[in-house]
Design brief:
The protein has a four-stranded antiparallel beta sheet with strand order 2-1-4-3, with no helix packed on it. The protein is 36% helix and 31% strand. By secondary structure, the chain is an alpha+beta fold. Strand 1 and strand 2 (51-55) form a beta hairpin. It has two domains: 1-35; 37-85, 60s Ribosomal Protein L30, Chain: A (2-Layer Sandwich), CATH 3.30.1330. Residues 45, 47-48, 50, 69, 71-72, 74 line the site of zinc ion.
């Protein structure tokens, strides 16, 4: 019975340690989250002005030819690359 108590105590200590480290991680993540940005790329069709937004990909640059426009078939080009603030988690 005594052995069980020691293991129970160790288990409680382990759980407390896990909870405290979890809380620390959550607090750190929240602090970082305030200044988190996401890079977006806006591609636009020069012919009919149709535009699409997608996540930035490595190698993207302004005026880079992209896929064909789904409306008129003209080659769309990257119009703008910008960063948007990620909405705070609720
Ligand atoms: Zn078009």
């Amino acid at each position: 019975m005594q052995g069980l108590d020691v293991y129970g105590l160790l288990l409680i200590m382990l759980i407390l340690f896990l909870i405290s480290s979890l809380l620390r991680t959550l607090l750190e993540r929240r602090r970082v989250g305030k200044e988190e940005y996401e890079t977006k790329t806006l591609i636009k069709c020069p012919k009919c002005n149709y535009s699409e937004e997608r996540n930035f990909q490595v190698g993207d640059y302004v005026l880079k030819p992209e896929k064909k426009c789904p409306k008129c078939g003209e080659t769309m080009r990257i119009h703008r690359i910008y960063a948007v603030k990620i909405a705070s988690r609720k």
